[in-house]
Amino acid sequence: MRTKFLSLSFIIVAAIVSSTAALAQDTYPSKPIKILVPFTPGTGIDILARTLGQKLNERWNQPVIVENRPGASGNIGTEAAARSPADGYTLLMTANTIVLNRSLYKRIPYDPIKDFAPVAPLAVGSLALATHPSVKASTAKEFIDLAKANPAKINYGSPGNGTPHHLAMELFKLRAGIDVTHVPYKGSGGAVQDLLGGQIGVMFLPIHVVLPFVETKRLNLLTAGGTRRAAVTPNVPSLAEATGVSDIDVDIWYAAYVPDGTPKSVIDKLNRELNAILKTPEVKDALVKQGLTPTGGTAEQLASLTKSDLERWAKVVQQAKIEGD
Fold first, then answer.
1. In terms of Cα–Cα distance, which of 252, 245, 306 is closest to 117?
2. For the sheet containing 90-95, what is the strand order?
3. Phi and psi, residue 130, nearest 5°
4. Is residue 21 very low, low, confident or very high in pLDDT (cuts 50, 70, 90)?
5. Do 243 and 140 meet the contact criterion of CB atoms below 8 Å apart?
6. Is the peptide bond before 38 cis (omega within 30 degrees of 0)?
7. SS3 string of 238-279?
8. In whole angstroms, what separates CA 26 from the centre of its chain?
9. How far is CA 241 from the centre of its chain?
C-alpha cells in the first residue's frame, strides 16, 4: 500500500508540474513585458531592443517597455535584471560586456552564469578599424608596419577603459605584435571628435558610426568586421582577412537573457518569437543599416558563447593588464 501511495503521489506531482508548465506557456504573456537595457538610448543594443520590442508588442498584443538603466559599464542595469522576478516579464538585452566585466572588475553585483538563463543570441555589431588621414596607411597591414616602425608613437582612442572598443584594440595589439598608446575618453563623443581632428590617429568604432565620415573622406576605413566582413560593407575586408590572423574576433555580440529560474516553457517561447522576428526581411534590413547583423540562435548556443567568451576575454584582460574605470 505504501509503495502504491508513493507511486500515486509521484504521478500527481508530475502531472501538476507538467500542467503548470503548460499553463505558463499558454497564458504567457498576460501582462506588459519590460526589456532592461543597461546602456544609454541610441546605442546598438538600445536600437536592437526597441526594434524587437515593437515587434513583440505587435505579435503578442501586449505592451513591451524598453527601460534604459545605464551606468558602471552596464553593471547597474544588469544587476537590476538579475534581481527581477524569474517569470519572463523582465528581459535583459545586453552586449558582450556581460562577460567582459567579469574580468575587468574585482567585484560585480551579479554572476553572468549563475544569475541568468540565456534566451537567444540576437545580433553582431561590426567594429571598424578607422584612421585619421594623417596616418599614412591605407590597409591594415600597412598600419601594422607603420606601428612597428614607430612603437608607442601612434595614439588610439576608446570610450573608456574596459569598453569593447578598448579591448578590441588590445586584442589587435597582442595578435599583431604592435605597440600603440591608449587614450581613454569618457564616452564615444569626445573620442570621435579627437579622431576627426587628428589628436588621435586610430580607433575601433561601430561601422555605422564610421561610414558617414568615410564617405566625406574625414576618416579612412581599413577593415570592417572581426572574423567576418560586415554585412553593410561587403567589399571591405574583415580584420582577420586583412591581417591574416584568424583568432581576432573583435566584434560586439548582443543577446537576450532572463533571470535564472524562469520557466523553460517561457524561455522557449521567447526564443521562438525572437528568432522569427530576426528572420523577417523588414527587421533584417533595418538592423543591417545600423551596422548590426542579425544572428539568432538557440539558448544553448548563447550559453556556450557566454562561457567561452568569459574565458577568452579573461586571457586578453590579463595579458594586456586592463582594468575597468
1. 306
2. 64-68, 33-37, 90-95, 252-259, 116-125, 292-294
3. -120, 145
4. very low
5. yes
6. no
7. CHHHHHCCCCCCCCEEEEEEEECCCCHHHHHHHHHHHHHHHC
8. 31
9. 22
- Write down the pTM of the prediction: 0.85
80 CB-near residues (< 8 Å, 6+ apart) = 36, 38, 69
C-alpha cell at 159: 570610450
Residue 109: C-alpha distances to residues 36, 74, 76, 261, 266 (Å): 16, 11, 8, 18, 25
> What is the largest distance, in Å, between two alpha-carbon atoms of the chain?
88
Under a CB-based contact definition with an 8 Å cutoff, are residues 157 and 126 in contact?
no
On the 0-12 / 13-18 / 19+ scale of CB atoms within 10 A, 157 is buried
The rounded distance, in Å, linking the Cα atoms of 12 and 147 is 70
- Given phi > 0 = left and psi -120 to 50 = alpha, else beta, which region is 310? alpha
- Helix (H) or strand (E) holding 34, with range, is strand 33-37
Strand duo 90-95 + 252-259: pairing: antiparallel
Give the separation between CA 199 and CA 192, rounded to whole angstroms. 10
pLDDT tens digits for 214-262? 999 999 999 999 999 998 899 999 999 999 988 899 999 999 999 999 9
More confident residue, 20 or 46: 46
C-beta neighbour count of 286 within 10 angstroms: 15
Q: If pLDDT is split at 50, 70 and 90, which confidence band does 60 have?
A: very high
Q: What is the DSSP letter of 204?
A: E
* Strands (DSSP E) found in 152-217: 155-158, 181-184, 202-206
